[in-house]
Specification:
Helix content of chain B: under 10%
Mean pLDDT of chain A: 93
Distance between the termini of chain B: 41 Å
Structural class of chain A: mainly beta
Largest sheet of chain A: 7 strands, mixed
Oligomer: heterodimer
Number of helices of chain B: 0
Largest sheet of chain B: 6 strands, mixed
Shape of chain B: globular
Helix content of chain A: under 10%
C-alpha cells in the first residue's frame, strides 16, 4: 500500500511569489493535514481538510490557504512568499476525522530567496 | 490549554547503551499519545501509540514507552541503541476539541548515537 506522497520534493521561489504544494493521502483516507516545520520552531499545525472541507486552521495568516479535491488529495498554496516561509512542509493523512493516528509524507522543502 | 514538553532538546549516547527520551503533557481530558521519529531529510514515521489499555506500549525498532497518568508522562525507552537510531524524536498528543482533532507536538529531541 502506498504511503502519503508529496510533490515537489524541493521548491525554490523568490520573495513575493506564490508556491503550490501537493499531497496525496493513503488510499481510503479522507482527512489531510498540513504542518510547517521551520528551523527552530518545531512542527506547527497549518490546516486540516476532511471530506473536501476546511475543518480547522492553525495560527497562520490568510495567505496560507489550500483545498481538498474529490479524490481527497490536497493542495497548499502560499501567496506573497516571505523569507520566513522557508521550511519543510509536511502533509499527513488519517482514516477519517475521528481517527487519532496520522501518517506523514516525506515533505516538500520550500526555500524562499 | 494542552501542551507537550520534551525535556531534552539533545541526547547523546554511546552505541548499545540504553536511552530514555522524556515527554510530559498537560491536559485535563483523556489523551492519546504518540511518538514519531524523523530521520534526516525525511518525514515523520509513527514509532508507537497509546490509545487505551496497557500502559506499557511497544513500538517498532525495539522502542517502548510507558504512559503514566499520575505523572502525566509518556517517556520513550530503548534498552540498547544502534547508530541507525540517530534521528529526531517527537512526542505528540491527540485531542478532540469541538469536534476537531488536533495533534500537538513537542519541540523534539535529537538523539545522537556515538560509536
Amino acid at each position: 500500500e502506498a504511503g502519503v506522497t508529496q510533490s515537489p520534493t524541493h521548491l525554490i521561489k523568490t520573495r513575493g511569489q506564490q508556491a503550490t504544494l501537493r499531497c496525496s493521502p493513503i488510499s481510503g483516507h479522507t482527512s489531510v493535514y498540513w504542518y510547517q516545520q521551520a528551523l527552530g520552531l518545531g512542527l506547527q499545525f497549518l490546516l486540516w481538510y476532511d471530506e473536501g472541507e476546511e475543518r480547522n486552521r492553525g495560527n497562520f495568516p490568510p495567505r496560507f490557504s489550500g483545498r481538498q479535491f474529490p479524490n481527497y488529495s490536497s493542495e497548499l498554496n502560499v501567496n506573497a512568499l516571505e523569507l520566513e516561509d522557508s521550511a519543510l512542509y509536511l502533509c499527513a493523512s488519517s482514516l477519517d476525522r475521528g481517527a487519532y493516528e496520522q501518517y506523514f509524507g516525506p515533505g516538500t522543502r520550500l526555500t524562499v530567496t | 490549554a494542552q501542551s507537550v514538553t520534551q525535556l531534552d532538546s539533545q541526547v547523546p549516547v554511546f552505541e548499545e547503551a540504553p536511552v530514555e527520551l522524556r515527554c510530559n503533557y498537560s491536559s485535563s481530558v483523556s489523551v492519546y499519545l504518540f511518538w514519531y521519529v524523523q530521520y534526516p531529510n525525511q518525514g515523520l514515521q509513527l514509532l508507537l501509540k497509546y490509545l487505551s489499555g496497557s500502559t506499557l506500549v511497544k513500538g517498532i525498532n525495539g522502542f517502548e514507552a510507558e504512559f503514566n497518568k499520575s505523572q502525566t508522562s509518556f517517556h520513550l525507552r530503548k534498552p540498547s541503541v544502534h547508530i541507525s537510531d540517530t534521528a529526531e524524536y517527537f512526542c505528540a498528543v491527540s485531542l478532540i476539541i469541538q469536534g476537531a482533532q488536533k495533534l500537538v507536538f513537542g519541540q523534539g529531541t535529537r538523539l545522537t548515537i556515538n560509536p
